[in-house]
Specification:
Largest sheet: none
Distance between the termini: 69 Å
Strand content: under 5%
Order of helices and strands: HHHHHHHHH
Helix content: over 70%
Structural class: mainly alpha
Radius of gyration: 19 Å
Number of strands: 0
Number of helices: 9
């Protein structure tokens, strides 16, 4: 019987940075969403994405392909979605957009930027997968449970849940600032 996990796959899937990032995100949302926590999470995620994940991916995509590089994280994910291996322009531009979070995560106009980036993230995810689904998923490996449920559903589901929670947090913050909310609060 063929082994599902070998040591290199397990190491690339469960790196300490990935595990700590997911645990920190889960702990923050379990304790409640506070603007300072969101700022720290955005800064950490931006740094992580820009310098450790998306930055090297974009660089390798511009100077060659991920398939010929030593980017084991992206090579492993490329087993689930082939477009990440061969410099697909849509995928590369999504990587560039993820780097924008690093620049805007701590400004006063954070909610405007947060809403914009969250909507862009959700739209980008839709535009990444929907055309492939309509074409019969030629680039997606849905035959193996690991690639389908962990790589495609879980890891991409995080990019739906977190922007959704951040949109909700921005909605509540902006609602509290609206004059009609302030007036109704004074009447009570």
């Amino acid at each position: 019987m063929k082994r599902i996990f070998d040591q290199t796959k397990t190491q690339s899937l469960f790196t300490p940075v990935t595990v700590y990032s997911l645990l920190a995100c889960a702990a923050q949302f379990a304790r409640g969403i506070h603007p300072r926590k969101v700022n720290l999470q955005l800064l950490f995620d931006s740094f992580y994405c820009l310098f450790l994940q998306e930055g090297p991916f974009v660089y390798m995509s511009l100077v060659g392909t991920v398939a010929t590089s030593r980017q084991y994280f992206w090579k492993e994910y490329g087993k689930a979605d082939e477009r990440w291996l061969h410099s697909d322009p849509t995928i590369v531009l999504l990587g560039v957009a993820d780097g924008a979070r690093f620049v805007f995560s701590m400004f006063v106009f954070r909610h405007f930027v947060q809403i914009t980036l969250c909507v862009c993230e959700l739209y980008g995810g839709w535009m990444t997968f929907c055309p492939d689904w309509l074409a019969g998923s030629p680039n997606l490996n849905t035959n193996h449970w690991l690639y389908l449920w962990i790589y495609l559903v879980f890891f991409n589901g995080v990019w739906v849940v977190v922007p959704g929670l951040l949109l909700w947090q921005s909605w509540l913050s902006l609602k509290r600032l609206h004059p009609s909310y302030q007036a109704s609060k004074k009447q009570k």
